[in-house]
Design brief:
The chain is an alpha+beta fold and 153 residues long. Strands 1-2-3-4-5 form a five-stranded mixed sheet, with helices on both faces. Strand 2 and strand 3 form a beta hairpin. The protein is globular, with a radius of gyration of 16 Å.
Length: 153
């Protein structure tokens, strides 16, 4: 398996992966609009200097992706910047084979090269498989986001 930076030639596959992310998250978020929707500006993610979008290839096929985006930290944090990890996707047949760890390792290395030493990501609290995978990778839960629909009040 080979991890490399995504290119514009990868857009068609990345759009399929994006729909895979949306389908996986839909059961955890009843507020998502009906399909078709898009989460990501892929061209921007590829072109930005503050973002590293990577893909994993296996036998010349792209099987996974993810990005790190450098963001400013809260003014009260001990660190000035962090890398937000997103668009983490692995083709179903490769899940459980540490492919996502390859993505995290690559994005960790890129972040360190940029002088960034903190990683953040979001995961739905009821997505037990994802929470378990990220916990195994070394992430710790630290915040629960809450919301309330008041449109019917």
């Amino acid at each position: 398996m080979k991890v490399r930076a995504a290119t514009l030639n990868d857009i068609d596959t990345l759009r399929v992966f994006e729909q895979g992310v949306i389908a996986a998250e839909r059961p955890f978020d009843e507020t998502l609009a009906d399909d078709p929707i898009q989460y990501y500006d892929l061209e921007f993610l590829i072109a930005s200097e503050d973002i590293q979008l990577v893909v994993v290839e296996c036998e010349q096929a792209i099987i996974a992706c993810g990005y790190a985006r450098i963001k400013p930290a809260k003014k009260y944090a001990k660190y000035s910047f962090y890398s937000y990890l997103g668009f983490m996707f692995v083709e179903e047949e490769y899940r459980g084979k540490r492919v996502n760890q390859l993505v995290i390792d690559e994005l960790t290395q890129w972040s360190l090269e940029q002088g960034v030493t903190m990683l953040h990501l979001d995961v739905f609290k009821d997505n037990d498989a994802a929470v378990s995978a990220y916990t195994k990778a070394g992430f710790k839960q630290y915040l629960v986001e809450m919301r309330m629909d008041i449109s019917l009040k």
